[in-house]
From TrEMBL:
This is RNA polymerase sigma factor. NCBIfam families: sigma70-ECF (TIGR02937). Keywords: Sigma factor, Transcription, Transcription regulation. The keyword Transcription regulation applies. Residues 11-78 form the RNA polymerase sigma-70 region domain. GO terms for molecular function: DNA binding; sigma factor activity. GO terms for biological process: DNA-templated transcription initiation.
Length: 165
């Protein structure tokens, strides 16, 4: 059992930041991203014995995270959103540096992309190797490079639209 826990701890340390970024890319919300991160790694822990080493473990974890995020988004669409009351809004600290604002804007722009584009660009931002991204997204590496180019163009347009506002 100690070996399993040690192996899981190493897997978590190696992958948690990237999975958080993926979840944040889907939700644009820190709390939701952290919840989805925990849910993803709970599933990893529960299913670690089923991992067959046919792909990289990080690819397997990305697939779990993507499915977890998609399930979350489908359930969110069915639930009515609560209004942000003034009391809650006042309790949110506005401590942003210019860089934090730019990163927040980038993730806001990413959240406007199609689901498949969000997966790809988030993995690119996390510097995941292209063969692994191609495996996760289910497309050829050549097609992936074209998609990444188009996604970057789209993101640039979205980002520039916000800058003009």
């Amino acid at each position: 059992m100690a070996d399993r826990e040690d192996a899981f701890r190493k897997i978590y340390e190696a992958n948690s930041k990237k999975i958080y970024h993926l979840c944040y890319g889907y939700t644009g919300d820190d709390d939701a991203a952290n919840d989805l991160l925990q849910e993803t790694f709970l599933k990893v822990w529960q299913n670690l014995h089923k991992f067959r080493n046919q792909a990289l473990i990080s690819t397997w974890i990305y697939r779990i995270a993507v499915n977890t995020c998609l399930t979350y988004l489908r359930s969110e669409k069915r639930q009515a959103k609560d209004e942000l009351t003034p009391a809650i809004a006042e309790n949110k600290p506005e401590v942003f540096s210019e860089k934090n604002e730019q990163v927040a804007l980038l993730y806001k722009c990413i959240s406007k992309l199609e689901e498949s584009e969000r997966i790809i660009i988030t993995l690119v931002l996390d510097e995941v190797p292209y063969p692994e991204i191609a495996d996760v997204s289910g497309i050829s590496e050549g097609n992936l490079r074209v998609k990444i180019y188009r996604i970057k163009q789209k993101l640039t347009e979205l980002y520039n639209q916000h800058e003009r506002l």
